[in-house]
């Protein structure tokens, strides 16, 4: 009992560890990059909301623009992820990854055009 080491059986029983290992082993790099961007957008939205709640909402239209931009970009990126995921190839037969990225880019441009106009 001098040193308790985690046996391979208990290491494989940890659900978070096995989920992380499966994610790293089975997820293509393209999807990991999109997931990192989604994580950044989620953190950005949380920080903006916390700032609004804890500090001030003085330029309220600026908060709404920033938060709306973050949520809209998250939705567009999640849509891009679902379209370029190889496991969803059957659902998106007519959409190539290049077309999905073009839709994402055009949607982002339109979204940010409206956000910029909302700022005033």
Structure description:
The protein is mostly helical and 120 residues long. It is flat and about 50 Å long. The relative contact order is 0.10. The mean pLDDT is 88. Component of the oligosaccharyltransferase (OST) complex.
Count of structural domains: 1
Beta-strand segment tally: 0
Mean pLDDT: 88
Helix content: over 70%
| Continuous helix count | 5
What is the CA-CA span between the terminal residues? Answer: 68 Å
**Rough outline:** flat
Largest sheet: none
Output the radius of gyration.
20 Å
Low-confidence residue ranges: none
How are the SSEs placed, and which strands pair?
Elements: H1 8-13, H2 15-26, H3 29-54, H4 60-84, H5 97-119
Helix pairs in contact: 3-4, 4-5
Task: Name its key features.
120 residues; mainly alpha; 77% helix; flat; Dolichyl-diphosphooligosaccharide--protein glycosyltransferase subunit OST2
Summarize the structure.
This protein has helices spanning 8-13, 15-26, 29-54, 60-84, 97-119. With 120 residues, the chain is mainly alpha-helical.
């Amino acid at each position: 009992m001098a040193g308790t080491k985690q046996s391979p059986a208990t290491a494989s029983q940890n659900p978070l560890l096995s989920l992380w290992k499966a994610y790293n082993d089975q997820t293509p790099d393209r999807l990991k990059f999109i997931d990192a961007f989604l994580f950044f957008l989620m953190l950005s939205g949380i920080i903006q909301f916390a700032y609004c709640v804890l500090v001030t909402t003085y330029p309220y239209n600026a908060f709404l623009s920033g938060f709306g931009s973050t949520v809209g970009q998250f939705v567009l990126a999640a849509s891009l992820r679902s379209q370029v995921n190889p496991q969803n190839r059957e659902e998106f037969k007519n959409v190539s990854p290049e077309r999905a990225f073009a839709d994402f880019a055009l949607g982002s441009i339109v979204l940010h055009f409206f956000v910029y106009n909302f700022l005033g």
